[in-house]
Amino acid sequence: LLFLTWQRNEEMGITDWMTLDISEKRKLYKELCTGLTPHKQSLFNAKVANRTRHFSLGLEDMMKTQNASALMRTADAFGVHRVDIYDKNERFNVASGISKGVEKWLDTTFFNTYNDGNQKEWANQLKSSGRKLYVTAVDSRARPIESLDASVSATICFGNEHEGASDLLQSLADELIYIPMQGFVESFNVSVSCGIVLHHLTHHMELSGVKRGLEEEDELNTLIQWSLRTVSNPHQYLG
Predict the structure, then answer these.
(1) 48 and 221 in contact (C-beta within 8 Å)?
(2) In sequence order, what are the residues at sequence separation of 6 or more whose Cβ sits closer than 8 angstroms to the Cβ of residue 2?
(3) Cβ-contact 187, 193 below 8 angstroms
(4) DSSP readout, 50-114?
(5) What are the C-alpha distances in Å from 65 to residues 4, 77, 230?
(6) With contact defined as beta carbons under 8 Å apart, do 236 and 14 qualify?
(7) Cα-based angle 69, 75, 79 (whole degrees, multiple of 5)
(8) Which segments of the chain are extended strands (E)?
(9) What is each CA distance from 20 to 12, 27, 83, 108, 224, in whole angstroms?
(10) I need a surface site. Which of 63, 117, 146, 182 has the fewest CB within 10 A?
(11) Are 192 and 93 in contact (CB under 8 A)?
(12) Tens digits of per-residue pLDDT, 119-150?
């Protein structure tokens, strides 16, 4: 198990570059490119162009590391750039064998009971982004995903495999959502559910005219972060 990359970077003290103005960041990225192969530069440019913050992913107390890691992998696959994680533990672990290392490419934020508060504080933090809060639930009040307006920006939250999203988080949701099913079972496992929901919403997001891509400085910040996590000895560029 590995702690997420951003935590290691915080400990290494390589996030001070965030205080630079945009012209200085452009200069930093140009220098970082000297440590990247042309193929890696081209790959980063292609991938960042397909990132989106229109939808983000929220994980509430996943409990099983393998499930959380699989959901993060799903977010990356659909270009969902932001993952917010609520966990009762002080540190959140990622199984890199399952995540396939996507923790290096995602924008992740952690919220835990010990330092930050409960689900109410977390939900308020999520809503402060301007996105709606959608929580998946098997509940008579829930709306089928087909009825959602994909042009509306939202954070989609999933609870753990056994208990689902907490009652408190459900009570704070702007919408409870579910995937209609035709068989005897009432729910998919959380990894399958995440894939279906993100595929549906990101696909219909594009059909509604919402384009992929990040704002200029956000894109530059992302490219710098990816580069710092790729080049050998990143400190040499941050002196």
Answers:
(1) no
(2) 93, 94, 95, 96, 103
(3) yes
(4) T-BSSEEEEEE----HHHHHHHHHHHHHTTB-EEEEEESSSS-EE-HHHHTTGGGTSEEEEEETT
(5) 12, 18, 24
(6) no
(7) 145
(8) 2-3, 55-60, 82-87, 93-94, 107-112, 132-136, 143-144, 154-158, 175-178
(9) 18, 10, 24, 21, 12
(10) 182
(11) no
(12) 999 999 999 999 999 999 988 899 999 999 99
* pLDDT of the residue at 130: 95
Gap between the Cα atoms of 71 and 92, Å rounded = 14
Residue 27 · residue 226 · CB < 8 Å: no
Give the Å distances, CA to CA, from 68 to 99, 133, 134, 229. Answer: 8, 19, 18, 21
Interatomic CA distance for residues 5 and 13, integer angstroms: 12
CA 5 to chain centre: 13
The answer to whether the CB of 156 falls within 8 A of the CB of 55 is: yes
Contact call for residues 130 and 153 (beta carbons, < 8 A): yes
Look at residue 116 and give its three-state secondary structure.
coil
Instruction: Decide: helix, strand or coil at residue 144.
Output: strand
Chain length of the chain: 239
Cβ within 8 Å of residue 101, ≥6 positions away? none
More confident of the two residues 15 and 165: 165
Q: What's the pLDDT tens digit per position in 173-214?
A: 999 999 998 888 877 888 899 999 999 999 999 999 999 999
CA distance 154 to 151: 9
How many Cβ atoms are within 10 Å of 174's Cβ, its own excluded?
A: 15
